[in-house]
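WARN retry 2 of 3 for item q-0093 after timeout on previous attempt; input resubmitted unchanged.
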Amino acid sequence: MVLEQLHSDRITERNLAAVFFTRAKGLGEHPAVKYKDKKEPYKTMSWKDYSRLVREIALGLMTLGLKPDEKAAIFSSTTHYWVAADFATISNGAVSVPIYHTSSASDIEYIIENSQARVVFVQNETLLKKLAAVREKLTCLHKIVVFYLPEDAKTAEELARKHNLPTQLLTDIESLRKLGSSLDTAHLKILEDRMKSTTLDSVATIIYTSGTTGVPKGVPLTHGNIISVLEDIKPVLPIDEQDVYLSYLPLSHVFERICGEFYWMVKGGTCAFAESIESMGRNMAEVEPSMILVVPRVLDRIYSKVKAGIEGASGRKKQIIDWALSVGEEMVDRQSEKKAVGPILLLKHVIADKLALSKLREKIGPHLRLVVSGGAPATRETLRFFNSIGISALEGYGLTETAAPTNVNQINCVRMGTVGPCLPSLEQRIADDGEILVRGPSIFKGYYRNPEATAEAFEGDWFKTGDIGCLDEFGYLRITDRKKDLIVNSAGKNIAPQKIEAILKTVPSVTQSVVFGDKEKHLVALITLEEQAALDIAREQGIECNSYFDLVKNSEFTAYLRKEISLRSRGLADYEQVKRFTVLASDLSVEAGELTATLKIKRNVVARNYKELIEAMYKHREDEVRELTERQKPALYAVKS
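OK item q-0093 returned
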């Protein structure tokens, strides 16, 4: 008997591995994954062949000695091998442990040791070097499996010798596959028995939170946690076997893992893997996906390119596009208020779609119809644009501890500035201090080997999200800030910085913003700009400059930024308005420790890295600010708002 024969409803309901093999049996020769080797065109693997790959890796892991409930870590960026290694691990009743490919040496060591991972899958030689640097500190490590061997090493043994590793420690994915494919039916029966013994309460994965402070915390998620979410989002994200999903975000993050990998496995047809986040745009043109998951910065970049094209259109053409967009916006507004769309607006929308909206969709992606944004607050203007042209752009909310989404906006009823209603199987309430509490079948039970953090995370059976929010009249959740990020100024006023930072990012060309002001009389901010957009704005404003460096020191451009910030801040209280800001020379980065792997700002690290600069702004010492910018080059210019 082979694994594809395991297709009873009982097994499908019990664990994710059974769901995967059942779906593979049903789709057979239908394309499952598209992937690239080096710079070659996309290759396609059917569900039948992909499930064989997973089965062979799973059997190979068994021969390496991996047992149920033991851990296998995956240290790689997003590839089709990542997903195969994941399903192969959980097919053994074992637990997969993702590690971000950008992780520091200390985090790599901590995650592997804390989880007690016996096997580590590693993408390539570059990441193997990072792992090798901490290998002697890893007490449980039994085997390293490399996805891609370098050109100068034909075997894993050669690669091991090259990096002074024991040859028996290293193998490669193809060797593991061959080992698995050579096993007899007795081994298949053992693997099948392991799958049958895996229940909804069995742990499927331990995902370590990237964390804006402190060491990572392991979040064990059971098969039941994950399956509960997948059932909840079926009506929210309608896809089927005809859809093509483009995967490019880190699979180490719960958003891509649940709504990408596992949801594709349950509902989708073909998952195409981008070569990298940087090549995502080119890969979109190659595979023409119908669904993508995004973080707001990616969505903003797509919007900026399309908007630039609209602004550059000829007079009559631009008038038509602007009119069509206004019609699309009116449609979105009526739907968001759950009001009937009358026949006149419907007719106008048909005309607008034919004249312009369909053409805008074609520019972004001819088949793209569903975009889900998560990981950070999305820009309202960007979401509004996508929905107005007919691409459903849904903002959602969730945490690693909640197995991803607890809330998602609904197609044809997107309320900008909210993350949507709570999913059906969950309960949600707002505590007296504004904190969002949630409970239900998708919520984890406690941090791995960390009872103190677990005790702090729960109020009875309610999980404390750490986020501040409120519910609108339609029951849609609005996130206002992180509880621990609240600024208390010198007058004792509580200020939510994320709300203000979101306003700053609506200023044309502003890409990042961080607001400070704890125990101070007023707020200051650090901002970054998109260089080309800033230069384009300067030309439009008639501002002369020779370079980007000259531009951000230009008093006219400074005045433009100050005016735009002031206009957009009119709805804020005086104590919430930014009085001074500084333009940084480069974006905040993961490498500098200023962003998490999911691009969340580490406010404490940014404050530490730019401590002198922030203090200089508060002391109104322009000369000191300029000296710091020249000496450190972290910022280009500070101005009074």
